[in-house]
Amino acid sequence: MNAPRTGPVAYPRSVSRVHLFAYGSLRRGETLHAHLAGLVCLGRGWFGGRLYDLGEYPGAVPSRAGERVLGEVYELAPDDARLAELDRLEGCDPGRPERGLFVRRGLTIELAAGGYVRAWVYLLARVPAHAVLIPGGDYARRGPRSPLDPAGGPS
Asked: Cβ distance 105 to 120 under 8 Å?
């Protein structure tokens, strides 16, 4: 598995589409997926990393330890206002990343159908002490809801 490449993504003005990788509550069938309504899903993919259960939602960090985070890749226009909306939703301030729980970074995503795509990913700025590792890195297969989630019970 290739090591994840992280860092800011500066899309040239001539780019007609950008990509977003959704690994948690933005995925199909999850609580916040409606925010991606109308976007084209390019399919499943993954990046080298670890996925954590934070209670009501997950968080991920890049890793070179052979683990991977599974999710879906979506396509949107570079000027789509949803990116700013998602930043607010995720508590991410691109101008002051140290302020939020999440930061938006560009990673290389390996597509299940073959090939790679560069995509925005919301990553944990730091792993909270209460975070619980999700084995296998697939939020959709996380099993019973974490005891950290105040709602409890199966998701």
From this structure: yes
Q: Considering only CA atoms, which of 99, 100, 96, 119 is closest in space to residue 108?
A: 119
90 in a domain, yes or no?
Answer: yes
C-alpha distances in angstroms, 13 versus 17, 55, 92, 96?
10, 38, 23, 23
The secondary structure of the chain in percent helix, strand, coil, rounded to multiples of 5, reads 15, 35, 50
Structure tokens at 126: 């730091």
Residues of the chain with pLDDT under 50: 1-14, 146-155
Q: Is there a domain that residue 1 lies in?
A: no
**Model pTM greater than 0.85?**
no
Q: Which domain range does residue 126 map to?
A: 18-136
Distance in angstroms (rounded) separating the CA atoms of residues 47 and 150? 29
Rounded CA-CA distance 106/15 in Å is 15
Which structure tokens are listed for 88? Answer: 């607010």
**CATH number for the domain harbouring residue 116:** 3.10.490.10
